[in-house]
Amino acid sequence: MTGGSLGLRTGSYGSLQLQQGQTGFPPNLQPSPLPITRKPSKLLLASREKERVLPCIWRVLGRKKVIMLLLVVLGLLVFVSNSFNVNKGMGDKHDIKITSTQNTMKGKDADRALLSPPPPPHLHTESFTVVHGKSPLLAHQCENFAFPPPPPPSDRRRSGPRPCPVCYLPVEQAIANMPTSPSESPVLHNLTYVYDENPTRIEPHGGSEFGGFPTLRERNESYDIKESMTVHCGFVKGNKPGDQSGFDVDEVDLMELETSHQIIVASAVFGNYDIIQQPTNISEFSRESVPFYMFIDEETEAYMKNSSVLGNNRKVGLWRVIVVRNIPYTDARRNGKIPKLLLHRLFPNVRYSIWIDGKLRLVVDPYQILERFLWRQNANFAISKHYRRFDVFEEAEANRAAGKYDNSSINEQVDFYIKEGLQPYSEAKLPITSDVPEGCVIIKEHIPITNLFTCNWFNEVDRFTSRDQLSFSTVRDKIMAKVDWSVNMFLDCERRNFVIQAYHRELLEQMPPSPPPRVVIHRPPALPHGITSVKTPPGKKRGRGDKKRHRKVVTVSRDNRQF
Question: Mean pLDDT of all residues in the chain?
Answer without folding.
Answer: 78
